[in-house]
Amino acid sequence: MAEKTFRYRGVPFTTDLHTEESLSYAENEFVVLDDDTFNVTYPKSGTNWMIEILNLIKYNGNAELSNQLPIFIKSPWYELAHGKQQVEVLTSPRIITTHLQYQMFSKSFFNSKAKIVYTMRNPKDVCVSNYHFAKIVHCYKDPESIQEHLETFLQGNDVFGCWFDHVKGWMQMKDDSRFFYISYEELQQDLRGSVVRLCKFLEKELDDEAIDSVVKHSSFQVMKNNKMANWSLTPSDFMDHNKGSIMRKGVSGDWKNHFTVAQNEYFDRVYEEKIKDFNIKLFWEDK
Ligand code: PPS
C-alpha cells in the first residue's frame, strides 16, 4: 500500500505519483490516436516485459532502436502526474502504458482504431511481486508481513485497486477485435509463439530473424542486465537500488515460497468467491 493515498472513483492512488487532475485528464481529455497501442496491466503482471516486447516489435527486432530511451520513458504510464508531458513527446506509433481500471480508461479510445494489449498474471504471484516492490519503492509502505500485504491485496486496497475488478473490467472487451489478452504465464511458456501472435494482432510482419531478436532481447536475463530496461536509471529518491530490483526473479509460482498452507487456502477461498460469476477460464486455474 502507498504511504499517502487518495481515492479517485473509489480506487486508491498514491499522491506521490498521481493527482485528481492527471487521472481526470487521462479519462476525459486525453486524445487517443488511431495508431496508438495501449499496454494495460494490473501492477506486477508483466508490464515492463510487455513494454519491451511491444517496442522491439515496433522496431522490427532492432534492439538498438528499441533501447534509445529508458523503459519508463519510452512507453510511459499516461495517468501519472507527469504522464501528459511524457506522452506528448512520443513519436507515433505510440506505445502507452497504463494500470488504470477499465471504467476510468480514456473515453476517446472508444471512438478510435487504437489497440489494447492486456497482460494478466496469477494474482498470487502479483501479490508476492508487489510485496517485494513495496520494500524498494519509497512511496509505498514497507509491508510488515506477507499476511498484512495479502489482506491489503485481497481487500482491494493496493494502489490501482482490486485485482478482481481490474481483470473482470478489462475482460469485458475480450471479443473486441482491438483487444488482445495474454498472461504472464503464457509468455513464459511460449515467448516466441506469443510474439508471433502479438505481431499478427498488431499487423506487423517480422521475419524469423527479427522475431528471434524480440525473443532474445525481452528475455529476463537480457532485460535484467540492460540498464535501459532494468530501472537502474530511476532516481534513488524513487527507488532504493540497494534494496532490490524490479527485475527480481521473473518466475511463475514464487508464491509457493511465500504463502503458508493457511494463507494459500485463504487466498483460494477469496479467489473462488470473487471469481465465481466470471465465466472465463484464466490460464493459471487448475494448474
Ligand atoms: S510494474 O511495477 O507494475 O510495472 O511491474 P511489472 O513490470 O508489471 O512486473 C514486474 C515483474 O515482472 C517480472 N519481469 C519479467 N519476468 C520474466 N521475464 C521478463 N523479461 C520480465 N521482466 C520483468 C519482474 O521480475 C517482476 O516479477 P517478480 O516476480 O517480482 O520477479
TrEMBL record:
What residue ranges are annotated as transmembrane? none
Enumerate the UniProt keywords alphabetically: Cytoplasm, Transferase
In the record, what terms sit under GO molecular function? sulfotransferase activity
> Where in the cell does this protein reside?
Cytoplasm
Which Pfam family, an example, fits this chain?
Sulfotransfer_1
Which residues are in the Sulfotransferase domain? 34-278
Listed name of the protein: Sulfotransferase
